[in-house]
Protein: NUDIX hydrolase
Amino acid sequence: MSNGQWYPPEWPARIRALASGELTAVVPRRAATVMLLRDDPPEAGTTGPAVHMLRRRTSMAFAGGAYAYPGGGVDPRDDDHLVGWAGPSLESWAARLGVDTAAEAQAVVCAAVRETYEEAGVLLAGPTADTVVSDTTGDDWEADRKALVARELSFAGFLERRGLVLRSDLLAAWARWITPAFEPRRYDTWFFVAALPEGQRTRNASTEADRTVWIRPGDAADGYDRGELLMMPPTVATLRALRPYGTAGEALKAADSQNLAPVLAEARMEGEELVLTWPGHEEFTKHVPAGGPAPAGGGTDGDPA
Structure:
């Protein structure tokens, strides 16, 4: 394997089935994932922020062993109940995310904040518009977190119970990727960037991950290039995009200039060969013999994390 690009071996057959009309594409589910950044103190002697990543359990059928960010699907309950809100207006978020309504924008941002709390124990919310909670490690917090994971508690209900407002100003939209039409599970995923709030600490709270790491985006991308870290194209692409920034704050400021046009993989036949491309991301292009086995490399983010 020349790099750490994950590729499902069943893709060629599914692509042929879609092209022949034997397979009908499913509607993507809305989702969000968060690139959580932190700056090390000057005495650490490091340059650039580190990003929090989790490794999917190797026993998982989908992308087992792949490194990703905390994330997951939108909870429909977050569309129809206004939450305590701080930061840019819902209307401005709707325009940035490219969705039709303020309710849709709220649901996507809520998913980003909720999933970061569920999978990393970090909460981008506070009692006022200019504060953030500093400690979420108590037993009562853990009970609420588990209730959110089990969908026994809505995120709006959680914020209301705690007397908190969502700090939408602490994160920014960075990219948007849609799972290819030939996948059975599809997600329309917004990638966000956020800085670790002062006083909070990450932990591996996800049942789908067997380890978590703080790693510089450039180091993670280099590990992928060497074939040491398994990843899907959206993860690699966003890591490369984060590489130039010297601090978490610089990355957050740069988010507004990032292109949020959806990236959707395309498949076509060229003679006896299947060609997979991701527009604007030529490094992920794959040529697959139409009647042969799948290559070792390739893939996309069929899971929002």
The helical segments are 11-20, 90-97, 102-120, 139-149, 155-162, 217-225, 233-242, 248-254.
